[in-house]
């Protein structure tokens, strides 16, 4: 007997103090957190016609993201599993991002060294740019080799705001 897996993807869009946010996932967990900033390379994001709107699903994530943008939360602690879809290399980079402490930053080369691939700095940057769950998987905490703000898929203005919310100067 085989068990049919529900491949339905669900979404909800809500407003925060910073921007609209869309959460997308399945019965497995959260796959995408999209920031509607109108900036950066991900502004072409759109809800797919076969996704089902469900405002009750991922309610713990929604509440904590709203609190984060209101400056009332800097760490996330919800029961919804994170299920970002990506290659093994991307997964290793995203896992390393989760080790960056709130209120601090690191460099792309630090992530490359952490995943034991010190020559893969550019590939690390590409994997970070494909992070489907920003903020929660904190790609905004990665800065250039000289400490300057560099690429963020939702725009540098948003990156600066996120770091400010976390007390990074």
TrEMBL record:
Q: Which SUPFAM superfamilies does this chain map to?
A: Methylated DNA-protein cysteine methyltransferase domain, Methylated DNA-protein cysteine methyltransferase, C-terminal domain
According to its UniProt entry, the function of this protein is described as:
Involved in the cellular defense against the biological effects of O6-methylguanine (O6-MeG) and O4-methylthymine (O4-MeT) in DNA. Repairs the methylated nucleobase in DNA by stoichiometrically transferring the methyl group to a cysteine residue in the enzyme. This is a suicide reaction: the enzyme is irreversibly inactivated.
So what does this thing catalyse?
A: a 6-O-methyl-2'-deoxyguanosine in DNA + L-cysteinyl-[protein] = S-methyl-L-cysteinyl-[protein] + a 2'-deoxyguanosine in DNA; a 4-O-methyl-thymidine in DNA + L-cysteinyl-[protein] = a thymidine in DNA + S-methyl-L-cysteinyl-[protein]
Q: InterPro entries, from UniProt?
A: MethylDNA_cys_MeTrfase_AS, MethylDNA_cys_MeTrfase_DNA-bd, MethylDNA_cys_MeTrfase_DNAb, MethylG_MeTrfase_N, MGMT, MGMT_N_sf, WH-like_DNA-bd_sf
Native source organism of the sequence: Vibrio rumoiensis
Fill in the misc note.
This enzyme catalyzes only one turnover and therefore is not strictly catalytic. According to one definition, an enzyme is a biocatalyst that acts repeatedly and over many reaction cycles.
Q: Write out the catalytic residues in the record.
A: 139
Q: Name one Pfam family in it.
A: Methyltransf_1N
Residues annotated as domain Methylated-DNA-[protein]-cysteine S-methyltransferase DNA binding? 88-168
Q: Which residues form the Methylguanine DNA methyltransferase ribonuclease-like domain?
A: 10-80
Q: Name one GO molecular function term.
A: methylated-DNA-[protein]-cysteine S-methyltransferase activity
Report whether DNA damage shows up as a keyword of the record.
yes
Subcellular localization, as worded in the UniProt entry: Cytoplasm
UniProt keyword annotations, A-Z? Cytoplasm, DNA damage, DNA repair, Methyltransferase, Transferase
Q: This protein is called what?
A: Methylated-DNA--protein-cysteine methyltransferase
EC number(s) for this protein? 2.1.1.63
Which family is this protein grouped under? Belongs to the MGMT family.
Might you name a Gene Ontology BP term for this protein? methylation
Keyword Nuclease among record annotations: no
